[in-house]
Amino acid sequence: NSRGTASLLKNSISFTDVSALGLFEGHDLLRRGFTSVKSELLPSHPLELTEKNFQLNQDKTNFATLRNIQGIHAPLKLQMEFRAVKQVQRLPFLHSSNMAMDILRGNDECIGFEDILNDPSQSEVMGEPHMMMEHKLGLL
Hints:
- By secondary structure, the protein is mainly alpha-helical.
- Helices cover 54% and strands 0% of the residues.
- It has a domain at 91-109 and 121-139.
- Helix 4 (54-70) packs antiparallel against helix 5.
- The longest helix has 17 residues, at 54-70.
């Protein structure tokens, strides 16, 4: 009976293993870049996490100092300005210098490591503008 064997095959094959992000889909290089084993490893040095969170820790210290000197209104006003500056962004495929954020933090007159070695024209990751906009808008 052909109908009986078809139903047996249908019941024996599990379709839960194959999904939209299943076995047959490759790594999306345009959105995620190249895979790296180093990014999956734990921090190799105790100071690595501290260095990654340096700006956040510095902001917290500055807010605490500002609160002690001028009161609660000064850090709240500065945090609102930070949020407003973070919301204004360029299109995802255009590089932004974040000059307004540098001015708020007082880094506009400092030359740092990222100012010299973080040139977007030398970046290895550059995606297709249309695909990046569609991804940001949730159309893909």
